[in-house]
Structures are given as structure tokens and as C-alpha cells.
Specification:
185 residues; mainly beta; SH3 type barrels; OB fold (Dihydrolipoamide Acetyltransferase, E2P); six-stranded antiparallel beta sheet; five-stranded antiparallel beta sheet; 16 strands
């Protein structure tokens, strides 16, 4: 059990039988009435974000999430096959479970799997990945003082806005949290 006064961003908790991670929290001490904690929580099972308010000092269950290193092997229709790096066991997740992550997954890529009491909740990507540009328009020389950008499609199918000097076959560093261009790799 953990007190809501000890909330930290990234903490995993169990509320009403579901597993949540704390995205934001705010301690509120109104002039009149009891103090409370306003929080924004992300459900790890379905990805929904909810806002919950707790009384100050209230205790809730702490969820112990296990992170294991796995390797993404291949896609087979709507199933995506992974292999545990320690036991070499293979398992698969559906495209619905990996909707955002598929924008960054390449074959043979190492990621972390998130599980709770044997139930696989999803995967943790690194903060940035290197992806190759497969399609983009040629850059136009001239007015680049304004920080002009163009669209580029990378090998996973994700389209990102990039500076005009990026060409096809360039390898880019892409932020996996927001899906934005960081730099050339």
C-alpha cells in the first residue's frame, strides 16, 4: 500500500482492479475543507487516461510492474512475435495492443516488455530510435531561415516533419514519446 501523498510521475498503482501509471498529480490545499490530491492516470491495460481525485493521506495498492528485455522478431498478420532475451520463449501481441509502438518497431529491435503478475500489458520503447527515410520530396534551396519543414516517411510507415536538408536513405533519430524528428543519426 502507498499513500497518495507519495505520488510520483511514473509510479504504478492499482485502483478499482485496474493497473494505472501516474502521469500528473497535484496536491491541493483549499482554504476551506480537507486537502486532496488531483491526479491524471493512464490505464496500462487499455491505454485510456482518467482523472481521479483522492483524499489526502488515502492509501491505494502499489502495482509491482516487471520489465524484461525482449526482441521483436516479426509480424504475422495482426500478430507481432517477440522473444524473451533470457529464456528464449516466444510470445505474440496484437496490433491493437501495439498501436502507437508499431510506428517505431523494426525487426530484431530490443525493447522491454511490461507485465503485471504474468499478464503482458505492453512494451516500453527506448526514448528515441533510428529510422531510415524511405520517401521524401527533394529539398528546395533558398528560404530556410524560417525553419521550413517537409514531410518524410520512414521505414516503419510513420510520417514525420523534417528540415528541408533531409533526403531519402538518411537515418534519423526519432522521439518515440511524441513521434517527432530529433536529428540525423
Amino acid at each position: 500500500m502507498i499513500s497518495v501523498n507519495d505520488f510520483k510521475t511514473g509510479l504504478t498503482v492499482e485502483v478499482d482492479g485496474d493497473i494505472f501509471t501516474v502521469i500528473e498529480f497535484q496536491h491541493v490545499k483549499p482554504g476551506k475543507g480537507a486537502a486532496f490530491v488531483r491526479s491524471k492516470l493512464k490505464n496500462l491495460r487499455n491505454g485510456n487516461t482518467v482523472e481521479k481525485t483522492f483524499r489526502a493521506g488515502e492509501t491505494i495498492g502499489r502495482a509491482m510492474i516487471e520489465n524484461r528485455g525482449v526482441q521483436y522478431l516479426y509480424a504475422s498478420g495482426q500478430e507481432h512475435v517477440f522473444m524473451d532475451n533470457e529464456t528464449y520463449d516466444q510470445f505474440s501481441l496484437t496490433s491493437e495492443q501495439l498501436e502507437w509502438e508499431l510506428n517505431f518497431l523494426r525487426e530484431n529491435m530490443n525493447v522491454n516488455i511490461i507485465s503485471y503478475q504474468g499478464e503482458i500489458l505492453g512494451i516500453n520503447l527506448p526514448n528515441s530510435v533510428e529510422l531510415k527515410v524511405v520517401e521524401t520530396e527533394p529539398g528546395i534551396k533558398g528560404n530556410t531561415a524560417t525553419g521550413a519543414t517537409k514531410s518524410a516517411k520512414v521505414e516503419t510507415g510513420l510520417s514525420v516533419q523534417v528540415p528541408l536538408f533531409i533526403n531519402e536513405d538518411d537515418v534519423l533519430l526519432i522521439d518515440t514519446r511524441e513521434g517527432k524528428y530529433i536529428s540525423r543519426a
